[in-house]
Amino acid sequence: MNILIIGNGGREHAFAWKIRQSNSCGNLFVAPGNAGTHTMAVNVPIAVDDFHSIGEFCLEKQIGLVVVGPEAPLVNGIRDYFESKPRLKNILLIGPGKAGAQLEGSKDFSKQFMIRHGIPTAKARTFHPHEVTEAHHYLDTCQPPLVLKADGLAAGKGVIITEDREEAKAIIREMLVDKKFGEASSKVLVEEFLKGIEVSVFVLTDGKDYVILPEAKDYKRIGVGDTGPNTGGMGAVSPVYFADEVFLKKVEERIVKPTINGLRKENIDYRGFIFIGLMNCSGEPFVIEYNARMGDPETQAVLPRIKNDLVELLKATASGSLGNLKIEKDARYATTIVMVSKGYPGNYDKGKIIKGLETSSDVNVFHAGTKTVEGKIVTDGGRVLAITGMGNDLQTAREKGYAGVAKLSWEGVYFRTDIGLDLLSLQNEAKSG
Ligand code: AMP
Ligand code: GLY
């Protein structure tokens, strides 16, 4: 089967790597891809939101399966576009339509969805532009830390957490009235602060049945010790020791099943990934957010831990025949470290030559922001590479991952040195305590 992956990040390189291993994979294309996907697939210069060109390309190359990596084309209706065209509607596609993608595209929708279906989540109230005074009064009654969330997609910047009530009031005004995040902040949620430790659970569903993939923890802040501004993600670890059988059973019964049943009850035909961001509050799972896709860099830690043929899983998902397929997990640990350009998540330079890529090592080097210029691979984004090391325990996986990182460099390279370290300490404490 010919397959097209949409996107250009480390997540899409990891998809390409895993899909390539399948006997069912014929010609593999990535639009637009990066220098990493170029080594295992054909990169196609089509933008992720150019549905017309994507559709024409699928017909020309007889694509049987489209895997949508990022959220924007899903929220903008790539599935709806394919379903509306007689020549495209039989092509299998991974990712929900516009209706399902609202789980990610609108925090107000997802909050109301969780309330309708009794799914544990932080309490919240939604405010509109004419309700700034009400929002200010409401903030007066809330106990800090105060959590403000823009309703729509805001490139990971739409969540603000502050101890300072006056700052929260100013921000909510900026969001609602000055449209700090454009349309994305035309509604704002004020949410209860959940205290705990985060973990993400990934579900693949055909709308009726589902499989739960290995869980992961990501590291969103730029600085060591979770300091500084938020990024797209600086690293990931899988498995997460506290997501044990008991915890995951709670997640499945209280969150996964009601989510999938809720989508069915609301007549939303959801075929794709659901990424559930959770807070573990003293052993009880609460949903922080849903995403309608896989995470980046979580995918780079999760896919190496799945033994199944990914194309078979994806085909079953898209065609509604997931039935009783089971996930076979690799028991090993994966640690993914993201290497970024100097200045990220602010302004950064591009075009720096990446050294060490030809050195052999036993890690996965997934490319994110890279491209080939005159035969040389250079940096072409904020997040440049994601390195995944595997090992029988977290310590070994970390050491392997960082040994892989040490072989790679460019001018101004930066990475966090503490990916997985918090889990390692907590895990050791739990063992000794
Ligand atoms: P989100 O964009 O919804 O994933 O939020 C970004 C980050 O903000 C999350 O990964 C959490 O670390 C934090 N966060 C969001 N909502 C809450 C909450 N209700 N309580 C505590 N932390 C939160
Ligand atoms: N790493 C977080 C995300 O993909 O949303």
Please state the second-level CATH architecture of the domain at 2-98.
Answer: 3-Layer(aba) Sandwich
Structural class: alpha+beta
Percent in helix: 25-40%
Radius of gyration: 21 Å
Tally of strands: 22
- Name of the top-level CATH class of the domain at 2-98: Alpha Beta
Task: Based on Cα principal axes, name the global outline.
Answer: globular
Précis, in short:
This protein is an alpha+beta fold and 433 residues long. The chain is 31% helix and 26% strand. Among the domains are: 2-98, Rossmann fold; 124-191, 2-Layer Sandwich (Dna Ligase, domain 1).
Q: Keyphrases for this structure?
A:
433 residues, alpha+beta, Dna Ligase, domain 1, 5-stranded antiparallel beta sheet, 26% strand, binds adenosine monophosphate, binds glycine
Q: Could you outline the blueprint of secondary structure elements for this entry?
A:
Elements: E1 2-7, H1 10-20, E2 28-32, E3 42-43, H2 51-60, E4 63-68, H3 71-75, H4 78-84, E5 92-94, H5 98-105, H6 107-116, E6 124-127, H7 132-141, E7 146-150, E8 159-162, H8 165-176, E9 188-191, E10 197-205, E11 210-212, E12 217-218, E13 221-223, E14 227-230, E15 235-238, H9 245-265, E16 272-281, E17 284-291, H10 298-302, H11 310-319, E18 333-340, E19 364-367, E20 370-373, E21 376-379, E22 383-391, H12 394-406, H13 421-432
Bound molecules: adenosine monophosphate and glycine.
Glycine binds next to loops.
Question: Could you characterize what this model shows?
Answer:
With 433 residues, the protein is of the alpha+beta class. Among the domains are: 2-98, Rossmann fold (3-Layer(aba) Sandwich); 124-191, Dna Ligase, domain 1, CATH 3.30.1490. It has helices spanning 10-20, 51-60, 71-75, 78-84, 98-105, 107-116, 132-141, 165-176, 245-265, 298-302, 310-319, 394-406, 421-432, and strands spanning 2-7, 28-32, 42-43, 63-68, 92-94, 124-127, 146-150, 159-162, 188-191, 197-205, 210-212, 217-218, 221-223, 227-230, 235-238, 272-281, 284-291, 333-340, 364-367, 370-373, 376-379, 383-391. The strands form 6 sheets. Strands 3-2-1-4-5 form a 5-stranded parallel sheet, with helices on both faces. Strands 12-15-18-22-19 form a 5-stranded antiparallel sheet. It has a 4-stranded antiparallel sheet with strand order 6-9-7-8, sandwiched between helices. A hairpin with an 8-residue loop joins strand 7 (146-150) and strand 8. The longest helix is centred in the middle third of the chain and has 21 residues, at 245-265. It starts with a strand and ends with a helix. 47% of the residues are buried. The mean pLDDT is 95. Bound molecules: adenosine monophosphate (AMP) and glycine. The site of glycine has 7 residues, from loops.
